[in-house]
Amino acid sequence: MATAVFLHAHPDDEALATGGTMARLADEGHRVVLVVATNGEEGEPVDGVLDEGEALGDRRATEVAEAAAILGVARVEYLGYRDSGMAGEATNDHPDCFWQADVDEAASRLGDLLADEHVDLAVVYDPNGGYGHPDHIQVHRVGTRWAEQAGIGRLRWVTLNRDSIRRSIEEALATGDLDGMAAASLEERRERAEQEAFGTPADEITHSVDVRGVVERKLAAIAAHASQIPPDSFFLSMPIERFTSAFGAEWFVDPDAPRKGEPFRTGLLLD
Question: So what's the architecture of 3-253 in CATH?
Answer without folding.
Answer: 3-Layer(aba) Sandwich (3.40)
